[in-house]
Amino acid sequence: MYTEKVMDHFTNPRNVGEIPDADGIGEVGNAKCGDIMKMYLKIEDGVVVDVKFKTFGCGSAIASSSMATEMIKGKTIKEVLALTNKAVAEALDGLPPVKMHCSVLAEQAVKSALLDYSKRSGVAIPELEGFE
Ligand code: FES
Ligand code: FES
């Protein structure tokens, strides 16, 4: 049912934890399953220099957030904005259809953290207009 990559990121998740002096913190929840994801970003000169996450949720949510952190580390805000849940799921070699919403949670957690960064820093991110 789960790919090797999903199992790998579930049993050995990357970038777990918190960033105490984060520049942006995102928190999203899924109403359907009750899972919660928190994402911490450290941003310097428009680049995500560090990222950590905490997920109170299922294995697919943990694997998705772990993979998402790897995909956005070292990337510019523009590149991070282009991250879709589909890309996260593909990077994991696929998720079962009933588990696709777990990757949506990861994409939303990243965007929510960027929005928080934008509010705190005053750096406008027009792409996030309407997101929340
Ligand atoms: Fe808890 Fe499935 S929702 S085990
Ligand atoms: Fe809800 Fe995975 S079952 S995030």
UniProtKB/TrEMBL annotation:
NIF system FeS cluster assembly NifU N-terminal domain location: 1-121
GO biological process: iron-sulfur cluster assembly
Domain of life per record: Bacteria
MF GO annotations: iron ion binding; iron-sulfur cluster binding
PANTHER family referenced in this protein's UniProt entry, alphabetically: IRON-SULFUR CLUSTER ASSEMBLY ENZYME NIFU HOMOLOG (PTHR10093)
This protein's name: Iron-sulfur cluster assembly scaffold protein IscU
Native organism: Andreesenia angusta
